[in-house]
Every structure is written in structure tokens, then in C-alpha cells.
Design a protein that fits this description.
This protein has 196 residues and is α+β, with helices and mostly antiparallel strands. It contains 4 helices and 10 strands; from the N terminus they run αββαβααβββββββ. The strands form 4 sheets. Strands 4-3-5-10 form a 4-stranded mixed beta sheet. A two-stranded antiparallel sheet has the order 1-2. The protein has a two-stranded antiparallel ribbon with strand order 6-9. A hairpin with a 5-residue loop joins strand 1 and strand 2. It starts with a helix and ends with a strand.
């Protein structure tokens, strides 16, 4: 039970990057992790947030993909190589909508009989995270975690030292310990929006 509780603490803490990523969780450049004004070392800015936040839809997701290719820049100002494997990180409220948008053969949320380019042009993984607190915020990340800068460092893995006995009461005392930190070391290939 203690190991399970420790794992829940890890998951909740990891979700804070996304839950507070528009306000108090800051990135390497001192601004919010998901911002419209990340600074480039060579001058200028780039963004990993929609210019106007939007709820999850085929149109908004298409705009994120366009922005990922046009806005994701290195410090020198060059565009990052486009990615095709993507993860859509969503709260439980969006689970079935996301499935319809991503997996439909025809264009989702449209009466047109067009093909769905979101399905045909990209490889998607949909991740539903119950620890996301904003029911309409959503995120797109490179599926390969070496291609985006959201990371965690395990300083001490979860372990349980030997049990102890309380000398006064004779009760058994169990402890569990771990040290881990999360953050954003660079923001390329990660995109987020708070929803409308």
C-alpha cells in the first residue's frame, strides 16, 4: 500500500507541470512552461501555446500541428525538425472526443467526406491523465520523450527501509522514501492550451 501511495504522489507531482504550466511552473527561460513568449538566446521569441486558447477540436488540433512546425525553434532561430509521432495528453473529459478526432477515417466534426489528415499524416498516442485538474486543458508532445524537454530526474528510487518497532507502544512502523524532481529543460515539441 505504501508503494502504491508513493506512486500516486509521483503521478500527481508530475501532473503539476501541466496543471500549473500556464502560470507558476516555469521553464528554463523563466516564463511559464506553456507560453506565447519564450525567448531565444539569439533574440526573438517563439511559442508553445495557441495564440488564442481553444477547446479540443479537429480545427484546434490542426492549428497546434501547424504551430509546432512553424513556431518550434532552437535558440539560434532555426526550426526544429518536424515530428510525426505525437502524444495527445488529455483529462478524462476529453477521452472519447479525442478518440473520434484522431481515429475517425473521415474528417471529424464535419459533414464533409474528406479524409482525416490528423489520422493519416501522424502517428498518435492518446494518454488520459486523471491527475490533470483543468477539464478542458490539453497538450501535444513528441511521443519520443527525448524529443521534448519535459523530464523527470529520479534521485532516489522508491524503497522501503526495514520496519521499526515503536519502543513505547510496540507498534510496527513502516516508512517509504523516494526523491524525484520534474521540470521543463526546453520547450520544443511540446504544446499546450488551457481550452476556451
Amino acid at each position: 500500500w505504501l508503494a502504491f501511495s508513493a506512486r500516486v504522489v509521483e503521478e500527481k507531482r508530475a501532473a503539476l507541470i501541466f496543471n500549473n504550466g500556464f502560470t507558476t511552473e516555469t521553464a528554463w527561460d523563466g516564463v511559464a512552461c506553456f507560453s506565447t513568449s519564450h525567448t531565444l538566446a539569439g533574440g526573438g521569441t517563439w511559442r508553445n501555446r495557441l495564440a488564442t486558447d481553444a477547446d479540443l477540436s479537429a480545427t484546434a488540433l490542426t492549428q497546434v500541428l501547424i504551430d509546432l512546425q512553424n513556431q518550434t525553434k532552437l535558440d539560434s532561430g532555426q526550426l526544429v525538425a518536424p515530428i510525426t509521432g505525437l502524444t495527445l495528453l488529455i483529462p478524462p473529459d476529453y477521452e472519447f472526443l479525442a478518440e473520434r478526432i484522431i481515429r475517425s477515417t473521415q474528417l471529424a466534426q464535419s459533414a464533409d467526406n474528406d479524409i482525416n489528415p490528423l489520422k493519416s499524416r501522424r502517428t498518435w498516442q492518446i494518454v488520459v491523465n486523471p491527475y490533470l485538474t483543468d477539464s478542458d486543458a490539453w497538450f501535444v508532445l513528441a511521443s519520443n520523450n527525448k524529443q521534448h524537454g519535459i523530464c523527470s530526474y529520479t534521485r532516489t528510487g522508491i524503497y522501503a527501509p526495514p520496519r521499526m518497532v515503536d519502543a513505547r507502544t510496540g507498534n510496527l512502523i513502516y516508512k517509504i522514501r523516494f526523491r524525484r524532481s520534474w521540470g521543463m529543460t526546453w520547450g520544443q515539441n511540446s504544446f499546450g492550451t488551457t481550452g476556451a
